[in-house]
Amino acid sequence: QVQLVESGGGLVQTGGSLRLSCAASGSSFSISAMGWYRQAPGKQRELVALITSGGTTNYVDSVKGRFVISRDNAKNTVVLQMNSLKPEDTGVYYCMLDPPPGSDYEGSWGQGTQVTVSS
């Protein structure tokens, strides 16, 4: 199974920036969609940003214009650049690998990295 390891979380003031990185092992990275999810205290996990294997991106409305997701298939990494951070962006951020339907590969989640935005 693919291992995903996130890094880059931390504490930042409102308006600041953070860069989250997710490193993947295994051979399914380049053919898989990759997503960043977050879970705030007492709330359900939500999809923040998604990038397909072809590079198409999608964002939840609340982060459009502030967050950018990108991938480097040569390095098996996906990055979430977060700018103009707000307190409501606080939560644990998880990286997710979503292989193509019908493939022999399994999906995978990272362990999560905490992002805290102070007001």
- Strand count: 11
For the termini, the CA-CA separation is 39 Å
| Overall radius of gyration | 14 Å
Assign an overall shape: elongated
Profile the largest sheet: 7 strands, mixed
Which spans have pLDDT < 50 for at least 5 consecutive residues?
none
Fraction of residues in helices?
under 10%
Q: What is the percentage of strand-forming residues?
A: over 45%
How many H/I helical runs? 0
Mean pLDDT: 96
Give helix and strand order, one letter per element, not per position. EEEEEEEEEEE
Short summary of the structure?
The protein has strands at residues 4-7, 10-13, 18-24, 33-39, 46-51, 57-59, 67-72, 77-82, 91-98, 108-109, 113-118. With 119 residues, it is an all-beta fold.
Word description of this protein:
This protein is mostly beta strands and 119 residues long. Helices cover 0% and strands 50% of the residues. It contains no helices and eleven strands. Strands 2, 4, 5, 6, 9, 10 and 11 form a seven-stranded mixed beta sheet that branches. A four-stranded antiparallel beta sheet has the order 1-3-8-7, with no helix packed on it. A hairpin with a 5-residue loop joins strand 5 and strand 6. It is elongated and about 45 Å long. The mean pLDDT is 96.
Task: List its salient traits.
mainly beta, elongated, 119 residues, 7-stranded mixed sheet, 4-stranded antiparallel sheet
List the helices and strands and how they pair.
Layout: E1 4-7, E2 10-13, E3 18-24, E4 33-39, E5 46-51, E6 57-59, E7 67-72, E8 77-82, E9 91-98, E10 108-109, E11 113-118
Parallel strand pairs: 2-11
Antiparallel strand pairs: 1-3, 3-8, 4-5, 4-9, 5-6, 7-8, 9-10, 9-11
